Amino acid sequence: MGAAIARTDLPTTSAQPRYALTESFAALFDPRRKGAALKKAIADWQVENLSAGALARIQLVDKGAIASTGAMMVAFPNGETRRLAQGPSSVITKAVVEEFTRRFLMKPGVIFLSESRNKTVARDDALARAIGIVISADRFLPDILLVDLGPKNPLLVFVEVVATDGPVSASRKEAFLQITTNAGFTEKQVAFVTAYLDRGQTAFKKTASEISWNSFVWFVSEPDHLIILREGREGKASWLFELL
Fold first, then answer.
1. Which of 107, 121, 173, 212 gives 20 to 30 Å between its CA and that of 4?
2. What is the rounded CA–CA span in Å between residue 186 and residue 32?
3. CA dihedral 60, 65, 67, 73 (to 10 degrees)
4. So what's the architecture of 72-229 in CATH?
């Protein structure tokens, strides 16, 4: 509403300072402004920033009614397109939806997709609920939930997009499994993928130790390959030749 600004040059998961007061709003706290001069400054600011027209414009831009020159278009498997905010996470998200699904899922679909700026996308959430998947924004929220309708039993694929932090950790995996178990899916019907831009980047090196066993790692820069983190059973390790 004209009171704050946010840096747009930072990854959405960056820990660096992002928000600041606008100059015009911060000026209202100048201790040298008092009495009538302060009241006039506040009134002027309210007229400029809190009028019906000003508030309507903020809502229209925020909801995407006005095209953004920095937007990134993503083509879904069903032919639908969606505009994502520009940024490192969106680059990975676009690749997952357009490239990963085409290479590793027989009949792919996107059930749910969330952005850092728009945590729950309503129409995706409706699709999730239609098959019993209830995702609460105040708990672990997946970046992407895919489905493969090719197998006899549908396969749900939780994907975490990592530009800086947030891989499929043990705690995230457990939370996602609770969601699918409540919906009546077995563990064999659920897969977990952490998606990075490149394995040479800091994001992967920084978070690799957090990735859960029995999950996959995929890189945008090497789209035909998967890293499999296979969890062995205690006292019964597999022979190496059995894994080839």
1. 121
2. 66
3. 130
4. 3-Layer(aba) Sandwich (3.40)
